[in-house]
Design brief:
The protein has 213 residues and is α/β, with parallel strands linked by helices. The protein contains five helices and ten strands. An eight-stranded mixed β-sheet has the order 1-2-4-3-7-8-9-10, sandwiched between helices. It has a two-stranded antiparallel sheet with strand order 5-6.
């Protein structure tokens, strides 16, 4: 059950690891990544998961792919720029689940960097559909405060990991994200490491533990 098969499903390119159950986790790569980028994290993910790792729909410069349409160089992603990708991903999950007899009514999402920001946005826009969230070296996109409500994420536990030496997404952005999530009623499980823009071994283990429970 460790093989991640390359799949073309409708207009998507995916890496898929079939699971022993009907549970789905959607993995979202970072800016300039692709469908292969997230598999490094999944070796010890629960075997009942169907792991779906899609390639983002927009080309990134100079290579790879992005979850937002091209924007001004140096600008941070916004909630509104993420909406088309989120709508497309919801449609993907529902269609893929129907084709493979899976339950898409409630699924988990985890993402790295830009994919972490998309994960956060996904959960805020569709809290009834997203069960668990893993935000890895991510951040709150512009416009997050405008969609926050005090009880929007009530009852949810959300995993967040970040490196104190991250120069791509500064640690202050992670700490601000925690405040946003807690203000919306979420319980945040936070793992911080003395590391750059990556996921430490300790935080990967913490993520694995979070997904099991």
């Amino acid at each position: 059950m460790t093989n991640h098969n390359l799949v073309t499903f409708e207009n998507w390119t995916l890496r898929v690891r079939p699971g022993t159950g009907k549970r789905i986790i959607l993995l979202l790569h970072g800016w300039t990544g692709d469908e292969n980028s997230m598999s490094i994290f999944t070796r010890n993910f629960p075997i009942e998961y169907w792991i779906i790792s899609p390639r983002a729909p927009y080309a990134a410069n100079p290579n790879g792919f992005s979850w937002r349409a091209p924007a001004a160089q140096g600008s941070w992603p916004s909630v509104d720029l993420f909406r088309p990708s989120i709508n497309a991903l919801l449609d993907l999950i529902d269609r893929f689940a129907a084709a493979n007899d899976l339950d898409s009514s409630n699924f988990d999402v985890a993402g790295f960097s830009q994919g972490g920001a998309l994960t956060l946005t996904f959960g805020l826009l569709h809290p009834s559909r997203v069960r668990k969230m893993g935000i890895l070296a991510g951040f709150a996109p512009e416009g997050t405060q405008q969609i926050l409500e005090s009880d929007l994420l009530s009852g949810k536990s959300i995993f967040l990991a970040h490196g104190t030496l991250d120069k791509t997404v500064p640690i202050e952005m992670a700490r601000q994200t925690i405040q946003y999530l807690e203000s919306a009623g979420a319980k945040v499980i936070y793992c911080e490491s003395e590391i750059g823009h990556k996921l430490s071994v300790d935080c990967l283990r913490a993520l694995e533990n979070y997904l099991v429970h």
